[in-house]
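Predicting structure from sequence has reshaped protein science. With that in mind, we have picked out one protein's residues alongside their backbone shape tokens:
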Amino acid sequence: MKKMREEQTERNAKKLLMMVIVVIGLLAFGSRADDMLGSSCQSVPNASLRGTVAMAGSTSMESLANGLAEGFMNRYPQVMVTAEFTGSSAGIEAVLSGSVDIGNSSRQLRPAEKAAGAVEYVVALDGIVMITDVGNPVGDLTKEQLSAIYQGKIRNWCEVGGRDMAIVVMGREAGSGTREAFEEYLEMEDQCDYANELNSTGAVMARVSSTPGAIGYVSWDVLDNTVEVLAIDGVRPTKEAIRTGRYGLSRPYVMVTRGGMEEQSEAVREFFRYLESGEGEMLLENIGVILIAPGEDKGNYHG
């Protein structure tokens, strides 16, 4: 747990550093504005870019989506980027209906969604982390124990080396990409026996932290000191273990469009270019998501 807290402190420090960099950059931009107008505007990329980029979808991708929206609008002030957090399936439905430009999903597309015209772009990785309340002495579960807990076959922590205390099983609502990825990992889709089904990552964190004996799952990048992290089969969900696949409970963060990139507006195409840029990748790194290792397939977008 100490290591996880140190990693969380490091992520928080990076986020703070990113905010400082953005503020300094904006101040520097303002001080150079007169010189730029008097000489050349080429240092402002696509300064005339206008339009809107509307996103909807995964609550697990809230930090990622909000961070990208803020960074992109700082770079292109005449483009408005909005994001709603309605769940992965709802986000995919919204992009297919044409009500948004990008559907954010913490699961990959289903065949039927692809057949309907949805195209996915993997932008980062996420670990799904098992958490319990800080008073729970159990720090490690096997995959088999985890399956038995979520099937209702193990109902007391004393059965897995803990205290004599009932296990309160928490999870996400139907339609959640996090829930789908978790249940797929356990090979028990729609078979979990939940005491509570919650509609956001934040709600799971809050409920687990305040409920003795609770267990739940959340995204790696939202971890804080209010909960205890559980290893699976002796492997803790560190950044490197998730990136390399040694920690098996992970999934992609996906952005979905209706049709290929050539069918998108200029603002949306530029938004995806920004994602692939050095500035975009630095922003994602400082938000706390896990970038795909260089050379690995990032999906359909190639710049």
User: Anything to note?
Assistant: The mean pLDDT is 85. Strands lie at 51-57, 79-85, 102-105, 118-133, 140-141, 168-172, 196-198, 214-219, 227-232, 250-258. Residues 2-124+252-287 form a domain with the D-Maltodextrin-Binding Protein; domain 2 fold (CATH 3.40.190.10).
